[in-house]
């Protein structure tokens, strides 16, 4: 049985969700307008898609979960609650690591094969890959074929997600499937980033650059490598955190921090 939180604690959680989602939206909307103004390469198209999914994710906290906790009441019908929170816990959430894996593959192909002319069909491959990602996200957001009770709902009384009457074995299968999707994506992207960093390091050694230019190239490579590894693993750590650590604590506000709080911070940091 999850511990309930009082009205004041729920309001603190609501304010935090609204405040952090506003910051995250600022980052992601700024990134969206930056990418939309650039040439529509495959990389930029994937980045645009990622900022859209992140922004939709953050909007749920801004217009629904945050106000619901602040007012200490459910807003609208329960089914609306379930679909919105199923999306941010599973559907829209998995868009991050899926798109990040595509971005990593794109970067790997450019670094290792250095195409002089980009094939005309490359954008169609990008659109097809992103469409597949959005279909996966749609399925995890709606859970077609499963009872509505298996959709997560946000409880303003506990400040976390609840499955209610979903049979335990279905709940376990959903969690396991999701973990086995996020974890391999993180490992795959991270391994690809090691190969990319290694190739860039060799290129910097082979090119006749000045000492200053070589140092700047090396620093840029290191910075991008750290950034990419962070983006790869932040979703894995958050997923493990939400699935396992929440069962080890009893305090309602701490459970909020390791579930919805962690989920929200992941989107803000990813932006």
From TrEMBL:
Pfam families according to UniProt: 7TM_GPCR_Srx
Boundaries of every 7TM GPCR serpentine receptor class x (Srx) domain copy: 18-271
InterPro entries linked to this entry: 7TM_GPCR_serpentine_rcpt_Srx
Top-level taxon of origin: Eukaryota
Gene3D superfamilies (UniProt xref): Rhodopsin 7-helix transmembrane proteins (1.20.1070.10)
Keyword Transmembrane recorded: yes
UniProt keyword Amino-acid biosynthesis, yes or no: no
TM regions (residue ranges): 12-36, 56-75, 87-112, 124-146, 178-202
Keywords assigned: Membrane, Transmembrane, Transmembrane helix
Name this polypeptide is given: 7TM GPCR serpentine receptor class x (Srx) domain-containing protein
């Amino acid at each position: 049985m999850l511990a309930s939180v009082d009205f004041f604690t729920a309001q603190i959680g609501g304010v935090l969700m609204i405040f952090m989602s506003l910051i995250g939206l600022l980052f992601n909307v700024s990134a969206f307008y930056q990418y939309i103004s650039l040439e529509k390469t495959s990389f930029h198209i994937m980045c645009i898609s990622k900022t859209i999914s992140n922004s939709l994710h953050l909007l749920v906290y801004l217009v629904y979960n945050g106000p619901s906790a602040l007012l200490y009441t459910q807003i609208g019908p329960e089914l609306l609650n379930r679909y919105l929170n199923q999306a941010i816990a599973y559907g829209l959430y998995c868009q991050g690591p899926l798109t990040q894996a595509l971005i990593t593959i794109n970067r790997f192909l450019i670094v290792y094969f250095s195409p002089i002319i980009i094939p005309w069909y490359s954008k169609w491959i990008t659109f097809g890959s992103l469409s597949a990602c959005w279909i996966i996200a749609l399925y995890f957001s709606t859970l077609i074929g499963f009872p509505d009770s298996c959709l997560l709902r946000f409880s303003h009384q506990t400040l976390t997600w609840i499955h209610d009457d979903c049979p335990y074995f279905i709940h376990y299968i959903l969690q396991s499937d999701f973990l086995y999707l996020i974890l391999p994506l993180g490992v795959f992207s991270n391994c690809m980033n090691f190969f990319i960093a290694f190739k860039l390091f060799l290129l910097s050694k082979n090119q006749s650059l000045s000492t200053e230019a070589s140092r700047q190239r090396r620093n840029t490579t290191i910075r991008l490598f750290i950034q990419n590894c962070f983006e790869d693993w932040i979703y894995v750590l958050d997923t493990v955190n939400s699935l396992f650590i929440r069962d080890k604590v009893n305090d309602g506000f701490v459970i909020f921090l390791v579930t919805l709080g962690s989920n929200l911070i992941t989107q803000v940091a990813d932006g």
